[in-house]
Amino acid sequence: MKSKRLRIFTFLSLSIFLGILLSGVVLITASNLIHNKQHNQIQLVEQFTYSNLGDNAKLLSKQLRGAVELEFLTITDDSGNVLYRYIEPEYNAPLITPILKSLSIYTEPASLITSNEELHIEFHSSYDQFLRPFTHLLYFMFFAPGLILGINMLIKVNNSTKTLPIQAEQANAANGNKLDKLTGLPGGPEFIEHFESLIKEKQGLHTGHFLLIRATQLQHLNFNLGYPAGDRYIQLIGFAISEQLTKDTNLQAFKLNGFDFGLILPNYSAEQSEQLILQITEQFKESFLEENVSSELSIATLFYDETTDATTLVAQANAQVEAEAEDTKAV
Asked: Transmembrane ranges (predicted)?
């Protein structure tokens, strides 16, 4: 929530800052242009005063109003008597005009005296029509940064929304790569990681049993009946194990390698472990129907506690299975 508010605050602050900055450029540009325009108009008015040899106020006023857009014009004689006065009718000036005035960067009225000093002229040009396009530009420059930033944010949100399914697929694919394709069980590295985290979380209060189940007939099936038969063999063992996982969610099963399955039985006693082995083997034998192939599985059971190392545990279980296999051959 805080990060969202911060993003909104940053967006608004940046939009306003850039809008004011760009608007300032427009205002300064407009101010420079009208000052240049006023300078040219003063020179033009001076030309009219030079050509008005008789200092005819009426003629001069007509010339000035015809040549310059005026906000007001006042012509007086050297005694201060008003000979001519014009004031532009009031109407809505463009927004930029009062802004320029409030910032003191608008033009000031100009005063001139004819060459024989009989007429005094005070005038100020009207720049409303000239400044009207700048008002539109001022609006645009103020709101454009917010609009551009908003569109940019929408594009980013849209792109992130599009990438979410892709990221989810990639995550699922990554997780899928960690699972055994035949059984759907996590692999050996996941067993090590899970076992170590399990011991660490319990902080010395955790014990249980570990089962190593070896698919002893896999090599025979692959060589004599083909790999599909071997794959089916592995799948049936995995199915028998998975059936027990549905009955006790505390159990964790892993496909350690091509031949071996590993089961973590938290807080299981030796008797409970033997009962679980019996259930798994019975489930497997019911589904394994290959003729002339033994349905017996090699299984090792080891106790573990908080001092047990995962790699050592697997090595000890493997040694126990191999020792039992040697004993079987000797008999």
From this structure: 137-155
